[in-house]
Design a protein that fits this description.
This protein is an alpha+beta fold. The protein is built from seven helices and eight strands. The protein has one domain (about 5-155). Helix 4 (about 95-105) crosses helix 5 (about 115-120) and helix 5 runs antiparallel to helix 6.
Length: about 180
């Protein structure tokens, strides 16, 4: 990746995360720059299945309608079983960063595969630990990654949404 700028936002509910993604889409933010990740705490109880149809992953479960809308909207999707966190559903470039880290045998001490992927794009390890804790506690993590200007624009849009935390990482510090 040529850029090292990201805005990472934590949402308490899928409704909040979905609203933010819709606001970003309406504002013309490139959907290929967005990733979303959340623990799938309901797979044991409610899942009927996962499958790929072309380049779209389908999910039938408790929040299947939420995830189903993102599989085609965001670039790439996957389900990972992350030790210490559990099953994680991911849509967007974060999926490719995780796969790249796993294939390259990237190891970052003390963090999961998700953490290693985030460190690889310039997010500090202390922040990564905070994001892993958010995922462990059933929060939704939304990442926009791109140029400093694109990330600043996304941050301004995200600032208008209901969220738990919003942090910019990268080349410039934003107010």
């Amino acid at each position: 990746m040529n850029t090292t700028n990201s805005v990472v936002t934590i949402y308490d509910t899928h409704v909040q995360a979905e609203h933010a993604i819709k606001e970003l889409q309406l504002a013309g933010v490139d959907m290929k720059s967005l990733s979303i990740a959340a623990r799938d705490t309901h797979t044991d109880e409610h899942v009927v299945g996962y499958y790929n149809a072309g380049d779209r992953m389908k999910y039938w479960g408790k929040v299947g309608a939420f995830w189903g809308g993102f599989w085609g909207l965001l670039f790439g999707s996957a389900l990972f079983a992350i030790p210490g966190i559990g099953p994680i559903l991911i849509a967007g470039p974060l999926m490719a960063w995780i796969v790249g880290g796993l294939e390259g045998a990237a190891v970052v001490g003390g963090v999961s595969a998700i953490g290693a992927a985030l460190v690889s794009i310039g997010i500090p390890k202390d922040s990564v630990v905070k994001y892993e804790v958010a995922l462990k506690t059933d929060k939704y993590m939304l990442i926009d990654h791109g140029t400093a200007d694109a990330v600043a624009r996304a941050k301004d849009i995200i600032a208008e949404t209901e969220h738990s935390s919003c942090t910019v990482h990268g080349e410039r510090v934003f107010a």
